[in-house]
Every structure is written in C-alpha cells, then in structure tokens.
Amino acid sequence: MKKVIVLFLLLGFAACQQQQPDPFPTPVLDPSTSVALRWGQMTLSIMYQLPLNTPTYGSRSLGYAGLTMYECVVNGTTTHRSLAAQLSGLTALPLPESGQMYNYPLALNAGQAAILKNLFAFAPTDRLRRVDSLEAAINGEFISITQPDVVTRSASYGKAVAEAIFTWSKTDGGFEGYKRNFDPGYSFPHGAGYWNPPINGQIVSGFPLHPTWGKNRTFAPANSTLPVPEMTAYSTNRSSAYYKEFAAVYTKNQTLTPEEKAIAAWWGDDPTETFSPPGHSYNLANIVVKTAGPNLVKAAETYARVGMAVADGFVNCWKAKYTYHCERPSTYVRANIDPAWTQFWPEPPFPAFYSGHSVQSAASATVLEALYGTSFQFVDTSHQGRPRDQIRKIDYVPRTFNSFWATAEEAALSRFYGGIHTRQDNEIGLAEGKKIGQHINELTWSR
Question: N or C: which end of the chain has fewer CB within 10 A?
C-alpha cells in the first residue's frame, strides 16, 4: 500500500511539473513579423566576429539597417509615418506608386538584403551568400500567394529605399569607417591623466579607435546638439573625488564574486569574439520581437529605434572621449595605488570617459521602454552556447530581466566590475543615453 501511495505521489508531482506554464512563452509570430525577425538575426550573423568591425562602425550600420527596415514597410500602414524630412539631412525617400499593390514583407526582404550587402561589403563572401540565401528563401515563401507583378514591384521598391538610404549614409562622416579604424597620424595628448594604449587590451594598437567619430552626423538632429558633459578634474590627492573614483575600481577588483565576474563577461562583447556591444542591444530587439510578437510595422520600428539610438549614442560618447582623452583605471591605479595591478577584463583601445556600454545600453533601453513599457520580463540569451571562458573560469548562462532599464544598469556595472571604467563613467553614460533615446522617441513615428 505504501508503494502505491508513493507511486501516486510521484506521478502527481510529475504531472504538476509538466503542467507548469512556461514563464516566457514564445508567441506564434505572424509570417510578416517573422521576416523582420529573421533579418534582425541575419544582421548579427554577419557582424559576429567580423574582421575590421568595431563598436563604432557596427553601431552606425545598425542605425541604417533598422531605419531601412522601417522605411520599407511604413507606407503600407495608416498608423505610422516616414522619418524622411525628420532625420539629419534626409530630405526624401522613394514612395510606392499610387494605386498599385505592394507586398511590404517582400519590400522589407529586398531592402534588408540590399542595405546589408552595402554596409558590410567587406564581409567574407560566405556571409554575403547567407544574405542572398535568406532573401531567396523568403521570396519563395511569398511567391505562391502573391501576384508576379506585385512581387517584382515590391522588391524594386525595397531596393530603391535601401539605395536611397545608403546614398545618404555616405555623407555622415563614418562611410567606410572600417578602412581607417586606427589613424597613425592622430596626435593624442600625453601626460598625467591622459589615455595610454592598453597593456592588457582587447587588441594591440598604439593608437585610439576612430578619434574623429564624434564629429559624425547623428540620426536625430537633437542628438547633435547635446553638450559634452563635465567630468571630475584630475588629481592624485587621496581625498579628491578623482582619486576615490579610481580607488573604488581597484578595491572592487580585489573582491569580485563569481556573479560579478559573470556579469563582467556577459556584457564584455569584444567585437573580435561576439557581435559587439551595439550588436548586443540589437539582439535584445530580436529577443523582444520574438517574446512580444508585435505586428510587422512595430517590429520594424523596434529595430529602427534601437539601431538609431545606439548609433547616436556612440557618436556622442566618442565626442566626449576625444574631448578629454581620459585615462583608464589601469593607468591611474598603477601610477598612484598599485604598480602591479591588472584589471579583471581586457580594456578596449580608446579613452575612458564616458562609458560606451552605458550610453548605448541606456539609449536602447529608453526606446524599448517607449514601445513595450517599463516592466517587460524576458531572458537575454545573447551568449547562450558560447564556450566557457577557461582563463577566468566563467560560463555564459542566459540572464533574466524584468525591465529594459535593468539591462542598461547591469551593462554599465559590468564595466566597473571589469576594472575598465569608474562609476562616474557609467553614471554619466546612463544619463546621456537616456537623453539620446528620448530624442529618438520624440521623432514623429505615428500619424
């Protein structure tokens, strides 16, 4: 009898376990929305460990890719309006022929293929072939249910939009930026408090990355007028705010917990190993679209807002970096606190103030909040399946969040844990990113 009862209880427990609802159920996406999602994923597939790609050039590319996606579908709706004549220097874009039928998912399909091949013309041939393969596969899915003339007209329209946006992109200051990542002719200041090329860095370079990127055109005109924020004045006095900022980084690096190390690694996003920091934000857009299941135009709007937000974030951040040429904690700590110190995470090849991770994560979170609310539960799977970091003994385990802003705060904090940014760098980056995202939100998206 006891065996029967135990068996009954075990079966009952198993049944309860099976009936537990999935806390993050994946909606069945509309086929049109699926087209947008697949192109968002393809974009990051191209960017993953892409030689010559950088956070700066990558962010710019995401801005144009997301905008192209949106503009290829916006004229098929009665709820949204084009951003032409709202963005810096973009006066007009091609329009659909009046009275003609279009399949806007096919327009998006053609537009994404065209813009990605233009933006990433330097990518390996096999990656560009993936673009052609996806375009052909999506065409095949819609051809059987779409009249031939509509198929042709829609693809032509999408390509025309993409070509117009790409032509406009050539005048922003960052065109083919991958050809001049490091400028040997750039003269950066030397002395106490100034940036030095990293000893323990992501890559070996004696010059800083894209020193003139801060002069590039922004997408939202309002983001070009943001003043460079002030930073704490240099000092070696132990009671000064400057000293305390760097001493806090040093102290924290002595006592990092396994969880703090995992956070530093999750948001590291070295472009030679991942799809870069802005790619992480764009992947959050992928996850949100997959989780929320919006209609096609909202999905495209999601990519456009995130892409332009991170692009403008990097322009403004680089303006500050090359105004101050501020040193990293490694330089200051070794000169004033501990000559033998090495930070936990490899540092990138450009000045510190303020944090690029912080500004672009905050800008992205701000635009996602505007679209999906301040409370949105999801799992960040960006690095799921990535091999264990054997040097630091860290596994890449997906992370759960209850809001977009929580991702921004954690991304910022990761740089403090990594030993490559002070809290000031991160806090100001978050504040500036929120302003930048708000300016993207303030564009007129709805009719």
Answer: N
